[in-house]
UniProtKB/TrEMBL annotation:
This is Uncharacterized protein. The keyword Calcium does not apply. The keyword Nucleus applies. Pfam families: Myb_DNA-binding.
Length: 241
DNA sequence: AAGTTAGCCAACCGCCACCGC
DNA sequence: TGCGGTGGCGGTTGGCTAACT
């Protein structure tokens, strides 16, 4: 761990990092056959690989272990992943145990690249109008140039308000928001991404405001007010409880 | 043909739980 | 009982490559 590396450094060893070479793989396989796939620190030391035990374990589990399947996830596997994720959430190792030959890392990567993307697209295709003040609301602009808001319930973003529908809105209009699409759907911790986004959004909006373009429209969610402003990052947007 | 962007995936990092001393 | 070492896990990063402009 930090300490594994530190310990190695204290022994005067420099740890290798980065991609594994073929000869390292061969050596690791040999020593795992002899010593077993348990005491990784021991395997790392005895084998003479200048890798941490953790790194050895990871390489073995994700790449060298026998009976690993490499290649595309099948439709059946995808179905299983979807079902189990729905049931267990991001318990990648649990899900992986139900998919022989697949690693948690592989499933995690797959989820991030394919399934999530699909889910987002599906959301957008099926988006329905509605309003739910108990949820957090975010501004989007889709491909079809319809701006709308989405709610976040802790797991998903669900479209809810078409802001072009001014009759229905407690949202004031003032300036156009350009080219926003799927801004809040990324997978990093929510607050971090959101605050990054807010910063970018803020500068973009402000510059647009300075231009004072016609055909423009700011859209404020219901919790927005002079005292409680979006850019001041106050209150409900960051309060997920 | 060269530069840029997006997608993919291997590997790393940080946290936590467990275990033995 | 507390502490250090270790393994496991989920989140994140960075590099490679293919696709696009």
């Amino acid at each position: 761990m930090a300490n594994e590396t530190t310990a190695a450094a204290m022994r005067g060893e420099s740890m290798r990092k980065g991609p594994w070479h073929e000869d390292e793989d061969e050596r690791l396989i040999t020593f795992v056959k002899i010593l077993g796939s348990r005491r990784w620190d021991y395997v790392a030391r005895i084998s003479g690989l200048k890798r941490s035990g953790k790194s050895c374990r990871l390489r073995w589990v994700n790449y060298l272990r026998p009976n690993l399947k490499h290649g595309r996830i099948s439709a059946e596997e995808e179905t299983i992943i979807l079902k189990l994720h729905e049931k267990w959430g991001n318990k990648w190792s649990m899900i992986a145990r139900r998919l022989p030959g697949r690693t948690d890392n592989e499933i995690k990567n797959y989820w991030r690249t394919y399934i999530r993307k699909k889910a987002v697209i599906q959301d957008h295709e099926n988006f329905r109008f509605g309003e739910d003040n108990d949820k957090q609301i975010f501004l989007f602009q889709g491909d079809d140039s319809n701006s709308y808001f989405e709610t976040y319930n802790g797991d998903n973003y669900n479209p809810c308000v078409n802001i072009s529908d001014t009759k229905n809105s407690s949202y004031a209009s003032a300036a156009v928001v350009s080219d926003f699409d799927l801004i809040v759907t990324s997978t990093s911790p929510y607050e971090t991404r959101l605050s990054d986004w807010i910063s970018e959004f803020q500068s973009e909006i402000k510059s647009e405001e300075e231009l004072n373009t016609t055909n423009s429209c700011y859209c404020y969610p219901t919790w927005f007010s002079e005292e409680n402003d979006l850019w001041g990052c106050s209150d409900t947007l960051w309060n997920m409880e």
